[in-house]
Amino acid sequence: QHLSRALADLREAIRSPLDTGFFCYRAIESVRQHFKEDGDKNKNASWNRLRNALLVDRGWIDAVKQFSDLSRHGATIPVSGKDRIMIMQHTWKVIDRFCIYIQNGFQPLPKAQFPILSDTSDDTQARDAPL
To answer: How do residues 118-129 score in pLDDT, each as one tens digit?
Structure first.
């Protein structure tokens, strides 16, 4: 169910240019729901589990989040075409990795095959990493 919701939000991000950041971040948040456990007192634990399992640095996700914060509260954020592409690429990579995580029986991704995605990652490296 988390993957279905994430994919639906990605579809809406494509359809709604003004709300790309909102829908992309919500897609990532849907994936985070999978990593919640009973007894979690706050979101940090599930975010940490997501980042560790999918090998994604917080900065990679924060690059998307910065374009969602104001829109989640009803404000409009101007987003350039270049930023929109970056937002969607970052989000798709997280969702790609979640699909692989599911396909591999909910096992963390192997570091040898998947370089950690970070805000300082070379975008070419991130795009060309194995799916």
So the answer is: 987 554 444 444
